[in-house]
């Protein structure tokens, strides 16, 4: 099935009116709302890992305090009976248990230790949750989506391990801990990432039960495409080639992030939808929803990189500035970046209008979480 056309191009962001009166109905909590100065943080400021729990950032104190205002500002709100924090804790626990059982500590020990070190290091598990939530939205079960949910997290972890390597982004900190190559060496980190990539497909193919074989074949093809030379890898290589290039424009930047960041988020949602039995129209809507929140994820990431410290992020802050990368704040400024994020969140949630509101509540809440996150 061909991809639906993107919801909005980055070039359209210039058409957003700067009038604050038009934005009052879309007020977002920090970091999109706060008028924080762009600052440069030391690249090697190492944080205490104990500060970072994989779930502690689910709902910040400010989000809880501003909950009523936030719900009024959104196009859609989760059901009043839906408890997002409980949902996140429950799903993260299920995903972590499944990942723990999927990658066992066995011979050769060093490679499996390296795989488990990064895979089980925490993280918010947003991609697995999106996969499960999309499956349940269209009538599927968590157990049906779990192998695919684990697969996208394995691939996401691989991408982080490789991204942190000296010849890529050269980072020493990930999720509040030393990066994989700092602990196990560059050679093992590369191989452990390769092993996670290969095992993701094996685990999904063998572990998915109660689903027609044609659906399994379809999701394998979908996942391969979203991370290959037309997906994540395409975004990575164009990003690398664009470093230090002063001619990078909005369309170019959008291409990078739709492929580098949004592709795997899109794949997570689409995999869950297909496994859950969605029809083509439902898959198309959820694909557009996922592409919106995928680009939203990156816009917020760019904002956080220049408004938060390494301790708050659990990774090195300000590294995009050091690498002279083009980001949304650098290209269009902090205010326009916040406006664009608001627009993306609104358009994402509009794709869920035709679904059961109760079943759509987790995806609505996850979209809001991506917009409001602190790290």
UniProtKB/TrEMBL annotation:
GO function terms (MF aspect): metal ion binding; transferase activity
CDD domains: Trans_IPPS_HT (cd00685)
Keyword hit for Transferase: yes
Essential cofactor(s): Mg(2+)
GO cellular component: cytoplasm
Record bears the keyword Transferase: yes
Keyword list, A-Z: Isoprene biosynthesis, Magnesium, Metal-binding, Transferase
Superkingdom to which the source organism belongs: Eukaryota
Leader sequence residues: none
InterPro entries: Isoprenoid_synthase_dom_sf (IPR008949), Polyprenyl_synt (IPR000092), Polyprenyl_synt_CS (IPR033749), Prenyl_diphosphate_synthase (IPR053378)
GO biological-process terms attached to the record: isoprenoid biosynthetic process
Pathway(s) where this gene product acts: Isoprenoid biosynthesis
Family designation: Belongs to the FPP/GGPP synthase family.
Name of protein: Heterodimeric geranylgeranyl pyrophosphate synthase large subunit 1
Taxonomic source organism: Forsythia ovata
